[in-house]
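Data availability (excerpt). The following record was deposited with the supplementary files.
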Amino acid sequence: MKTVSLALSGGAARGYAHIGVIKELVNNGFKINAIAATSMGAVVGAMFAAGKLNDYEEWVKNLYKLDIINLLDFTVGGGLIKTDKLFNVLGQMIGPNVLIEDLPVKFCAVSVDIVNKKEVWFDKGDLLFAIKASSAIPSIFYPVEKDGHLYVDGGILNNLPVGALRNTQSDYVVAVDINSNVKTKYDITIQKDEEKQQNLLLKQFNKISKKFKKDQKKQYSIFDIAATSFDIIQNALKSYRLAENKVDILIEIPQDVCKMYDFHKASQLIQIGQIATKKALEFYGEKDII
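Predicted structure:
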């Protein structure tokens, strides 16, 4: 069985594509023995490393049955959202007091310490804390505080943490870029009842977004501005990361498949992740790399 060290990028809702990527790699006989990830990639990667990816997939596909507004505590004045309730749900899914060093898959979540202005790799310690620190998007989510440090989304410095895989031993290094500029169209179909429920979830997100528009006449909310800003930063840094570190297989998910906060599109994005992975394996297989 061929082994894989996997780098998963951040990209909010687009991170659901990582679920499809992992499923397709496993279905093709690859063993994932190491994961380095940022933001949403860290969430999905942690779920796989903890053996809870199937539970997580089922949860995100049925998120429309929950009241998403009740999972997020937001303060209009501060322009920030607290994620304690959301991560409590993820914590229940993972289990209590799970340590990174005890996982069957080597795992590293990338964050940024804005007090010391440096990149931080969480490769040991509390798993839930690590993924929360890695995914605290500045200007949207509250920073995660611990011992005088403030941690935010690792994507502001390193959204494709291939370098964190340098000391892993695998047959292949696979990087998944969910913010790619490639132009690919996907023919994805879902059932009508699922589409209806997804639209209900979208309405809930729109309610949140409107609360962050001080001027309702403006076209863009803080979510739009933050998302676009992050996309620009991440794309600017990505080429440097790939130039610095060897990647055997690069799986690219187009940036335009959805907006960063289109969390209602879980089913479509998971399918896109599977299709993109299948195409990448065929491409690199033809080049005799795998």
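Summary of structural features: Residues 2-288 form a domain with the Cytosolic phospholipase A2 catalytic domain fold (CATH 3.40.1090.10).
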